[in-house]
């Protein structure tokens, strides 16, 4: 029995919506790490996209060598966390509170990192292989059959979001992080090693970017230029949602990704315009972002 025109339209709408949700999940995982670093620590890390791409390449190499996707994610998280901690200790810790110097220094790091990765992995696009159990399609109402890997990405983003919110709002570490941002000198007077805490937070944020690189390389692909794309998306998500707010990053990722996906599906010529229209509208009404705190 042939589908009616209305049924085809509804099925297309459902597929586009699911694609938007999976893209929002990927944006959120990347932007949540950026929100921790930029929003909470007030560190302008313009090399965040490079950490994403490095994680994707590390995950690809480990997955190809071990045939284990989970080991690829774990290796990417560990390697990129170490790289992020090294970046914080060696460069950014000396520029605390100097936004312009941090931005310029990390832009330089991102340019060097992009050239090194291009020299090592070339300009080809890579696809990270999924386990057989995760590469299947499952029935979804209205949409028909949909990739299980994309549905698992949504679940993974939810777990990360809940975990980060609980860490920041329900643990002593979260209390220390928030206190260090609000009044660093007072926290240091209580005997807390604030620089060490900030290195740990930077490593967590970098690790999220690295793991997101493996997920993005699995669902989409790994190629040069992805670092700039995800840095820009993280900036927009954090600006829309509010600096330092994990729920804000989730809302920002959802708004940006859905606008981008619907725009490209229904009005391809103006797809990217909707994303920046959302950012401009939010900045006009709430300059601190939807869930950001007033300065």
Which terms would index this structure?
two-stranded antiparallel ribbon, single chain, 2 strands, mainly alpha, 3% strand, globular, 11 helices, 74% helix, 295 residues
Topology:
Layout: H1 5-40, H2 48-66, H3 69-90, H4 99-121, E1 137-140, E2 144-147, H5 148-170, H6 172-182, H7 184-189, H8 194-219, H9 226-241, H10 246-266, H11 271-285
Antiparallel strand pairs: 1-2
Helix pairs in contact: 1-5, 1-8, 1-9, 1-10, 2-3, 2-4, 2-8, 2-9, 3-8, 5-6, 6-8, 9-10, 9-11, 10-11
How is this structure best described in words?
This protein is an all-alpha fold and 295 residues long. It has a domain at 28-224. It has eleven helices and two strands; from the N terminus they run ααααββααααααα. It has helices at residues 5-40, 48-66, 69-90, 99-121, 148-170, 172-182, 184-189, 194-219, 226-241, 246-266, 271-285; strands spanning 137-140, 144-147. Strands 1-2 form a two-stranded antiparallel ribbon. It is globular. One of its GO terms (molecular function) is transmembrane transporter activity.
Q: Quick gist of this model?
A:
This is High-affinity branched-chain amino acid transport system permease protein LivH. With 295 residues, this protein is mainly α.
Structural class: mainly alpha
- Measured as a percent range, the helix fraction is over 70%
Q: Output the number of helix runs.
A: 11
| Main sheet specs | 2 strands, antiparallel
Q: Give the percentage of residues in beta strands.
A: under 5%
Which parts are unreliable, with pLDDT below 50 for 5 consecutive residues or more?
none
N-to-C span: 60 Å
Average pLDDT, all residues: 87
**Quantity of strands, as a count:** 2
Strand order of the largest sheet: 1-2
- The run of helices and strands is HHHHEEHHHHHHH
Overall geometry: globular
Radius of gyration: 20 Å
């Amino acid at each position: 029995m042939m589908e009616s025109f209305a049924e085809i339209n509804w099925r297309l709408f459902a597929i586009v919506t699911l694609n938007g949700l999976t893209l929002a999940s990927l944006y959120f995982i990347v932007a949540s790490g950026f929100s921790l670093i930029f929003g909470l620590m007030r560190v302008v890390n313009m090399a965040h996209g490079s950490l994403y791409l490095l994680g994707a390449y590390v995950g690809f190499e480990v997955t190809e060598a071990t045939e284990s996707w989970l080991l690829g994610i774990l290796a990417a998280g560990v390697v990129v966390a170490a790289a992020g901690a090294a970046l914080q200790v060696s460069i950014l810790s000396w520029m605390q509170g100097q936004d312009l110097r941090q931005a310029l220094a990390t832009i330089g790091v991102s340019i060097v990192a992009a050239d090194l990765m291009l020299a090592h992995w070339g300009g080809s696009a890579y696809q990270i292989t999924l386990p057989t159990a995760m590469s299947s399609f499952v029935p979804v109402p209205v949409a028909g059959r949909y990739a299980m890997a994309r549905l698992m990405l949504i679940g993974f983003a939810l777990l990360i979001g809940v975990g980060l919110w609980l860490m920041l709002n329900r643990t002593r570490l979260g209390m220390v992080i928030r206190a260090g941002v609000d009044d660093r000198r007072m926290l240091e007077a209580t005997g807390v090693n604030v620089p060490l805490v900030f290195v740990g937070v930077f490593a967590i944020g970098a690790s999220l970017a690295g793991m997101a690189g493996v997920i993005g390389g699995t669902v989409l692909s790994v190629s040069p230029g992805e670092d700039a794309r995800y840095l820009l998306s993280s900036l927009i998500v954090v600006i829309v949602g509010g600096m330092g707010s994990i729920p804000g990053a989730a809302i920002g990722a959802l708004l940006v990704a859905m606008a981008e996906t619907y725009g490209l599906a229904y009005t391809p010529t103006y797809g990217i315009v909707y994303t920046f229209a959302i950012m401009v509208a939010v900045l006009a009404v709430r300059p601190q972002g939807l869930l950001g705190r007033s300065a």
